[in-house]
Amino acid sequence: MCEGRVAVVTGAGRGIGRGHALELARQGARVVVNDLGGDVHGANPDSAAAKEVAEEIIAAGGEAVPSGHDVSTADGAAGLVRLALDSFGALHAVVNNAGILRDRTIVNMTEDEWDSVIAVHLRGTFLVAREAARHWRERSKAGEPVDARIINTSSVSGLFGNTGQSNYGAAKAGIAGFTIIASLELARYGVTVNAVSPSARTRMITPRGQERMAARDDFDPFDPENIAPLVAWLAGTGSKDVTGRVFNVHGGRISVLEGWNEGPTVDKGKRWDPDELAAVMPELVGRARANVTLG
Question: In 3-state terms, what secondary structure has residue 46?
Fold first, then answer.
């Protein structure tokens, strides 16, 4: 499916990202395995995980190089894309998967806890996508055919909400919005942009969540490698007509998320007076469906 293509996967040292890298390699892609390393909070960087995944791909007969670039910095994003081009001479797909957690309720959250999560998830997605897009724009303007992919990682926390994750959820909701806008801007260069919202058992899940996601004997719906087949398909040439979409993925279940829908509406045809709204708004909100939640 991805024969002859070159893919960059961020956050590929463990969990869902590792599954992406391995599946892309199985489908014929040459892979840049990016992971800054460290713990779930982003502390104590260590590039060993990225090296291990790259070695696993090579041992299975594939081609891969490890990367310890920090995607939350412009230099790191540029270095990551440059590594792909220097190592394999091309770039066809970017999978933005890197992330950290620093959960806290809003009243207790520090600015650093907010900024660090936004930096890795949202800014990291933007910086790597921007660097890759600039490369593809140059190829397109030079008259070369471009058939490229950006695949971002959103989350149910941002799309449906989750207490204690205002920083993470805001970043993941932002990634969904970024995905849609980037798809509009980059279509002219032959680039599609989509996102996945995965539900899987990773080290970013709380111990209580880990227990709920315990593996089963028949089929493990929370295995993080379950997300990879869709990502591999999106990274391949067969997905060129699919762009601007966010997919919810859990086990063997894939759904297309349909975003915000305009609900009950009232239109006076001219400026409202606040006193008038006092009589209108409760009834208007009362006719609206409740926000969608999980479960």
Answer: coil
Q: Identify whether the C-beta of residue 120 lies closer than 8 Å to the C-beta of residue 99.
A: yes
Q: Is 95 among the domain residues?
A: yes
Tokens coding 129: 């996508």
Domain with residue 49: its CATH number is 3.40.50.720
Which residue is associated with the tokens 């260069």?
189
**Structure confidence by residue, pLDDT tens digits, 2-23:** 999 999 999 999 999 999 999 9
Give yes or no: 189 in active site.
Answer: no
As given in the structure block, the two tokens for residue 133 are 């897009």
Given a contact cutoff of 8 angstroms between Cβ atoms, the answer to whether 231 and 196 are in contact is yes
Determine if residue 212 is left, alpha or beta; phi over 0 gives left, psi from -120 to 50 gives alpha, anything else beta: alpha
Q: Among residues 72, 154, 172, 197, which one is catalytic?
A: 172
Catalytic residue, candidates 47, 72, 155, 183: 155
Residue 155 annotated in active site: yes
Domain that holds residue 67: 6-257
> Tens of pLDDT along 88-111?
999 999 999 999 999 999 999 999
Q: Give first-to-last CA distance, the chain, whole Å.
A: 34
Q: Considering 67, 168, 197, 239, which one is annotated as catalytic?
A: 168
- Assess if residue 265 is contained within a domain: no
- Note if 172 is an active site residue: yes
Burial of 115 (0-12, 13-18, 19+ CB in 10 A): middle
